[in-house]
Amino acid sequence: MRLIWHGYRYYPYERDLAFREVAALFGNPAFRLTSNGVEWVGEPDSKSISRLTYFARVVSGPRSYETLQNRLEDSGRLGQNRQATRYSVHGLHEYKGKFNPQVAKALLNIFAIEPGQHVLDPFCGSGTTLVECAHLGVTSCGIDLNPLAIFLANAKLRALNTSVEKLRDIHAQLATSLNQAGQKTTQVGDNLRGRYLRSWFDSDTLQIVEFVGMEIRKIAGEVAPVFLALASDLLREYSLQDPKDLRCRRRKSPLPNTPFIHAFIANCTRAIERIEVVQTVLGTNLPLGRAILRDVATIAPNDLQVPCDAAITSPPYAMALPYIDTQRLSLVWLDLLRPDHVRGLEADLIGSREMRVPTRNEMLAAMQNNEAGLPEDEAAFCRQLQAALGSGDGFRRRAVPVLLYRYFSLMQRSFRAVRGVMRQKSPFGLIVGRNHTTLGGIRHDIDTPTHLAALATSVGWTIDEMIPLQTYHRYGYHMSNAVKAEALVLLRNS
Ligand SMILES: C[S@@+](CC[C@H](N)C(=O)[O-])C[C@H]1O[C@@H](n2cnc3c(N)ncnc32)[C@H](O)[C@@H]1O
């Protein structure tokens, strides 16, 4: 039996995950590489073939089967040699920090998760893991502290479970009503929300955007979140913010030529086409996962009904760029957050550079005395960064050691809480990025995967494996340019 690669260029780690997946699914590590894939000695088993992530086709004697993954990816492909990552409902809305759905799916295979089992993503973001679970018939639960993440994750799950006929019908009604509207618009209220939105949209665009939101709510009923997500995904593009900037700054580029309503209708058409492919391949009766708005450090067994059989996540980075800032338009437009609560939410997120009380000085004392009880290496690393500060380091840099200490403390609490909702012996896979910081004019690497693994073991997890995810520029450079950008940390609830 020959397993044939997809047409895109692979990162080295994707091949590695592919081999692990084959070994887990087919239970026989005796396979060898061929020019266009892998040769495996054995008879094809249709259930395992249907789960493959990193192969496009399976050839056995005269027969050739296309994998389900290939059919799904075909619907979201942007070019033959580019890996599709926005297939199914993954492309409903962009989300900063979104990871590759293929990695989540491969992990589900490597962990041998079966339909009917339960999987947790403790930092679920826009729901990539939850969607891949649904594709495999696996029940899932996601946790996130960002209301936009929860809104999007649940909208994606709802889209998967709403028949494409119903989505088309709503889309047609919306198109009719919005196109007939002519100059109809909706005024924005003179409240905090309205004032905030007025500061970031020209008044004509804002009235149209509000009108679209109102019509969606009127026409789409319980499926409204799906269409609201599709409209929200366009907001930055049509606002006065520079949509390419990672921070909120005024745009210099002109607004798009296509009217907002046309762009929205086209967005819906594309999304529904992709959903149709999933439903043709997998049906509509997929198990419904759910995403819950919570601080992961506070989850308890009662929140999840049953203990989880595996967890998969991409946790927040240590000191990420402000996450919420560029999502503020969506958060406010969707009425998920008051504009004056944005900074507070930002400060509550793990990895944030914002800091509420306790003040920096209190945190500094906590760090010096290691009040959180971090493993000695992690506490010592933070103190070492503190000692490395130079006179030229400004306000932001001076906060780095303390911010890192807080990040480690919160991640340690999260590992403890996640362990409390997992079955014994269950696996936990984390895709973790590395960091660096410059203090006192010297670059300091922050080996976040190793630190997180140490924090996890300090609260009862054991390390199964640490796999470097080597990446190089996918479309051009040679392997010698490889950077160990991220790592896959595999833990077990011992
Ligand atoms: C790297 S992103 C995850 C993205 C996700 N894998 C996806 O594909 O969309 C990390 C997430 O952690 C969330 N987060 C940060 N602090 C949290 C906390 N205390 N509890 C729960 N979620 C938190 C952030 O809101 C963010 O969505």
Q: Can you give me a brief rundown of this structure?
A:
The protein is an alpha/beta fold. Helix content is 43%, strand content 16%. It folds into 3 domains: 1-84; 162-282, no CATH class; 291-493, no CATH class.
Polypeptide structure, described:
The protein is α/β, with parallel strands linked by helices. The chain folds into three domains: 1-84; 162-282, no CATH class; 291-493, no CATH class. Helix content is 43%, strand content 16%. The protein contains 19 helices and 14 strands. The chain has helices at residues 12-26, 46-51, 68-74, 101-110, 128-135, 147-160, 164-180, 192-200, 203-220, 224-232, 260-282, 301-304, 328-333, 342-348, 360-368, 376-388, 395-398, 400-420, 448-458, and strands spanning 2-5, 31-34, 37-40, 55-60, 63-66, 118-121, 139-144, 290-293, 310-313, 427-433, 435-439, 442-446, 461-471, 483-493. The strands form three sheets. Strands 8-7-6-9-10-14-13 form a seven-stranded mixed β-sheet, with helices on both faces. The protein has a five-stranded antiparallel β-sheet with strand order 2-3-1-4-5. Strand 6, helix 5 (128-135) and strand 7 form a beta-alpha-beta unit. Helix 4 (101-110) packs across helix 5 (128-135). Residues 473-483 have low confidence and may be disordered. The structure holds S-adenosylmethionine.
